[in-house]
Design a protein that fits this description.
76 residues; mainly alpha; 5 helices; rod-shaped
Length: 76
């Protein structure tokens, strides 16, 4: 971290702002935690939109032993 402190004026500015202003600190901390969660949730929703279609196709093409194991797993 000392390399960042010595070389980066942006890093020094950020440290000073978060040290001196509680409001800025909480805004920065919120942005660092909420923004990745929102992006991750959005990506999961976009990539999981076809799950019912994929599941139906997998069940249609499943081998008999896979179907039997699925029934056993559903009971337990």
């Amino acid at each position: 971290m000392s390399v960042l402190w010595e070389k980066s004026s942006t890093w020094r500015w950020l440290v000073r702002r978060t040290r001196d202003s509680k409001r800025f600190f909480f805004a920065f901390a919120t942005a660092c935690s909420v923004v990745p969660v929102v992006i991750g949730y959005g990506v999961m929703q976009l990539t999981n939109s076809r799950s019912e279609q994929v599941e139906a196709q997998l069940r249609k093409n499943a081998r008999p032993e896979s179907l039997m194991m699925a029934q056993v797993n559903m009971k337990g």
